[in-house]
C-alpha cells in the first residue's frame, strides 16, 4: 500500500517510506503555484496576440516563467492520482481541519492585530472552508476525495486497452470542447472536471505504464517536456494568455505528464525533502488566504515590480515565494500536532 493518501500526510511513522523524488516534485509544484500567483495573478499577464513590434524582454521573461510554472497545480493533483487517494473519513476530516486551521487562524490573528476588522459573522465564515472561500482548489479537491473510490475502482477494473480508450476520449473531450471551444464545464481547468481528468491520468500512469520503460525513455521525456513547455510559451505569445495557460491546454497537460514521469526515474532518498514536502499545501493555504493575499503578498509583489529593475524584481519575488514556504514550515508542525491530538492523524 502506498504511503500517499492524497494531500494530507501527518503520520510520522510513514516519513521514511516516502519517495523523495516525488516529494521533491511536490515541493517544486507548490513553488510553481506561488510563482504563477506572483506573476499572473498579482500583476496580470502581457497580452501580445502575436504583435511583437512593441514587446519587451521583460514581457517575454514573464511569459516564459509562467510557461514553466503553470503546471504546478496539475502536478500536485497528478501525484494524488498516481498513488491514489485512500478514502477514509479521518482523512477527509484531517483535510478540512488543515484548511480551517489556516483560514480561522489567519483571520483570528489579523483580528487580534487589527480589532476593528473583527466580526463574528466573518469569523464563522472563516470556518466554512468549502463554501466561503476564494480558494477554488479546496472544494474541488474535497469533491475529488469523495469520487476517488469510484475512480480508483473504475481505472483498476479496466484493462489497458479499455483504460486507454476511456481516458483518451475524456482527454479529447476536455481539450477540444473545454479548452479550444471554451466549454463552460471546463474552460480553463479551474474545475472539479480538471481534477478528475488529471487524477485519472495519474491512475493510468500508475497501473498501465511500465516504470522500467519510463526509465529507459528518460531522454525522450526530457525532450517532450522542453518542447511542450516551448509550445506553452509560443501559444501565450500568439493567443489569449488565459487560454494559453489554461490547465487543460494540451501543451500544459503534456508538460505536466512528462515532468512527472521524469521525476519517477530519479533515485533520491532524503528525510529533509520528505519533511519539507509536508508543508507544501500549507504554503498554498497561507499565501492565498484573502487577508494575506490581498493585504500582503499581492501588494508586496506589485510594490517590488514598481520599485526594482526587472532582474532585481525576479530575485526579490523568488525571495518572497521561498519566504512564504518557510513560514508554512514554521507553522505547520503546530497544525500537525493538533491534528494528531484531535483526529489521530
Give a written overview of the molecule.
The chain is mainly alpha-helical and about 350 residues long. The chain has one domain. The chain is about 75% helix and about 0% strand. The protein has helices at about 20-45, 55-70, 70-85, 90-115, 120-125, 135-155, 160-180, 190-210, 210-215, 220-240, 240-245, 250-265, 270-275, 280-285, 290-305, 310-345. α1 packs across α13 (about 270-275) and α2 crosses α10. It is globular, with a radius of gyration of 20 Å.
Quick take:
The chain has 345 residues and is an all-alpha fold.
How much β-strand is present in the residues? Answer: under 5%
Rg measurement, Å? 20 Å
The largest sheet is: none
**H/I helix tally:** 16
Helix content: over 70%
Query: What is the string of helix and strand elements?
Result: HHHHHHHHHHHHHHHH
Distance between the terminal alpha carbons, to the nearest Å? 17 Å
Mass-distribution shape: globular
Low-confidence stretches: 1-13
Mean pLDDT equals 93
What is the element layout, followed by pairings?
Layout (H helix, E strand, L loop, with lengths): L19 H24 L13 H13 L2 H12 L5 H25 L6 H8 L9 H21 L2 H21 L11 H17 L2 H6 L1 H21 L2 H4 L5 H15 L6 H7 L2 H8 L2 H18 L2 H34 L2
Helix pairs in contact: 1-2, 1-3, 1-13, 1-14, 1-15, 1-16, 2-10, 3-8, 3-12, 4-5, 4-16, 6-8, 7-8, 10-12, 14-16, 15-16
Amino acid at each position: 500500500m502506498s504511503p500517499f493518501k492524497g494531500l494530507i500526510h501527518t503520520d510520522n511513522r510513514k516519513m521514511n517510506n516516502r519517495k523523495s523524488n516525488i516529494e521533491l516534485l511536490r515541493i517544486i509544484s507548490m513553488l510553481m503555484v506561488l510563482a504563477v500567483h506572483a506573476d499572473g495573478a498579482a500583476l496580470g499577464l502581457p497580452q501580445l496576440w502575436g504583435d511583437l513590434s512593441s514587446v519587451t524582454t521583460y514581457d517575454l521573461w514573464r511569459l516564459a516563467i509562467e510557461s514553466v510554472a503553470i503546471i504546478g497545480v496539475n502536478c500536485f493533483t497528478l501525484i494524488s492520482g498516481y498513488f491514489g487517494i485512500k478514502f477514509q473519513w479521518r482523512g477527509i476530516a484531517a483535510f478540512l481541519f488543515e484548511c480551517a486551521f489556516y483560514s480561522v487562524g489567519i483571520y483570528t490573528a489579523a483580528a487580534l492585530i487589527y480589532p476593528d476588522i473583527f466580526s463574528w459573522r466573518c469569523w464563522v465564515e472563516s470556518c466554512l472552508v468549502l463554501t466561503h472561500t476564494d480558494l477554488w482548489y479546496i472544494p474541488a479537491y474535497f469533491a475529488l476525495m469523495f469520487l476517488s473510490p469510484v475512480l480508483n475502482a473504475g481505472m483498476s477494473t479496466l484493462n489497458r486497452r479499455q483504460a486507454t480508450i476511456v481516458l483518451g476520449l475524456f482527454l479529447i473531450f476536455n481539450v477540444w470542447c473545454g479548452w479550444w471551444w471554451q466549454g463552460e464545464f471546463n474552460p480553463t481547468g479551474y474545475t472539479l472536471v480538471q481534477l478528475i481528468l488529471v487524477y485519472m491520468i495519474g491512475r493510468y500512469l500508475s497501473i498501465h505504464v511500465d516504470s522500467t520503460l519510463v526509465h529507459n525513455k528518460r531522454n525522450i521525456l526530457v525532450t517532450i517536456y522542453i518542447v511542450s513547455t516551448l509550445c506553452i510559451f509560443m501559444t501565450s505569445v500568439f493567443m489569449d494568455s488565459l487560454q494559453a495557460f489554461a490547465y487543460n491546454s494540451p501543451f500544459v497537460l503534456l508538460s505536466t505528464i512528462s515532468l512527472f514521469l521524469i521525476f519517477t526515474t530519479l533515485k533520491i532518498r532524503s528525510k529533509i525533502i520528505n519533511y519539507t514536502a509536508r508543508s507544501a499545501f500549507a504554503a498554498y493555504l497561507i499565501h492565498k488566504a484573502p487577508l494575506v493575499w490581498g493585504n500582503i503578498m499581492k501588494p508586496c509583489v506589485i510594490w517590488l515590480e514598481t520599485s526594482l529593475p526587472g532582474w532585481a524584481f525576479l530575485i526579490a519575488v523568488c525571495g518572497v515565494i521561498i519566504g512564504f514556504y518557510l513560514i508554512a514550515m514554521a507553522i505547520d508542525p503546530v497544525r500537525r500536532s493538533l491534528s494528531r491530538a484531535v483526529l489521530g492523524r
